[in-house]
Specification:
The chain is α/β, with parallel strands linked by helices and 300 residues long. It has helices at residues 3-14, 27-30, 41-65, 82-89, 108-111, 117-120, 142-145, 148-152, 164-181, 195-207, 217-223, 226-240, 255-273, 282-297; strands at residues 69-76, 98-102, 129-133, 184-192, 247-251. Helix 1 packs across helix 13 (255-273), helix 3 runs parallel beside helix 13 and helix 4 packs across helix 13.
């Protein structure tokens, strides 16, 4: 398949997943966690393999060009499939060109800085794909659902008013625009899991010994806030899907389909950059040819 045909196919595939900038999202009404675009799993396996191969080529060119970086933000509710998505989607790329960062409870040092500081420390360099397994959006999700976390951030009183979330949406949009203007492309994926599928995945983690380590009682306690999280996700998707850093809502009840979608979204971003291997100028090419002649002369 030609690059042009591949680009059009990928763009068409992910279009239903994109949150249109300026739109108002109701997550429970607008996006179906079980959507699979009429695809069968056996066809999806081959499609994912093709997508991984495409990503490997694009990532190699991105690294060689050394002009743009890509920040891939992955958000989901507990058991949403973030780790597995990263593992499968990035399985074919050069690990030297990818950095995965996970964000948990902030440290004392991180709490002594502004709320975006710890995320800025992990941004990708030029030529690199940086993956945020959870991201700066935790600051308008977990912190919003559990406002006691806002108190831990040592903010002055005037910064904790009723407009704090709207202000953070604006600050995040501005930050992502700044990154994009400086050559760091931002793309964001929300793995949209149903409450029933989360229940089944939790049970699997309890019942299968090899998955026990992934289970935490805190995850079940957090499940009690399901409706609050759905509301927070809906609002942030509405407020922070921008032309320069769009959100894609990926149906996550079927892991195989979620992985295909995530690979397609990342491929679409890289296709848009269209990275190219650097071309040599006249002097560099002369040196290359001189080196070749020297090496050939050494042949026995």
């Amino acid at each position: 398949m030609s690059d042009g045909r591949a680009a059009k196919r990928v763009a068409k595939f992910i279009k239903p997943l994109r949150v249109k900038p300026g739109s108002t999202v109701d997550l429970t009404e607008d996006f179906d966690p079980r959507y699979k675009a009429g695809m069968k799993k056996r066809d999806g396996v081959e499609l994912l393999r093709t997508g991984v191969s495409l990503l490997a080529d694009l990532q190699a060119r991105l690294a060689a060009q050394d002009t743009y970086g890509v920040l891939f933000c992955l958000q989901a509710i507990d058991a949403g499939g973030k780790d597995g998505t990263i593992r499968h989607v990035m399985s074919g790329v050069n690990p030297q060109g990818v950095r995965v960062s996970s964000f948990k409870v902030p440290s004392a040092e991180e709490l002594d800085h502004d709320y975006l500081w710890r995320y800025a420390q992990r941004l990708p360099s030029r030529g690199e794909i940086g993956i945020f397994n959870r991201s700066h959006y935790e600051e308008v999700l977990v912190v919003r659902v559990h406002p006691e976390n806002l108190d831990r951030q040592k903010l002055p009183e005037e910064a904790k008013g009723p407009d704090v979330w709207q202000r953070r949406y604006r600050e995040i949009n501005d930050w992502e625009r700044y990154l994009t203007d400086n050559g760091i492309k931002v793309v964001k994926v929300f793995l949209n899991l149903s409450k029933e599928e989360q229940r089944l995945r939790f049970l699997k983690r309890i019942d299968r010994p090899e998955k026990n380590w992934k289970f935490s009682a805190a995850d079940v306690r957090e499940r009690e806030h399901w409706d609050d999280y759905q509301e927070a996700f809906s609002e942030l998707l509405s407020a922070t899907s921008t032309p320069w850093a769009p959100w894609y809502v990926v149906p996550a009840d079927r892991k195989w389909f979620a992985r295909i979608c995530a690979a397609a979204v990342l491929a679409h971003t890289l296709i848009g950059i269209d990275p190219q291997y650097p071309s040599l100028d006249g002097q560099a090419r002369k040196e290359l040819l001189d080196a070749r002649r020297g090496l050939e002369a050494e042949a026995p």
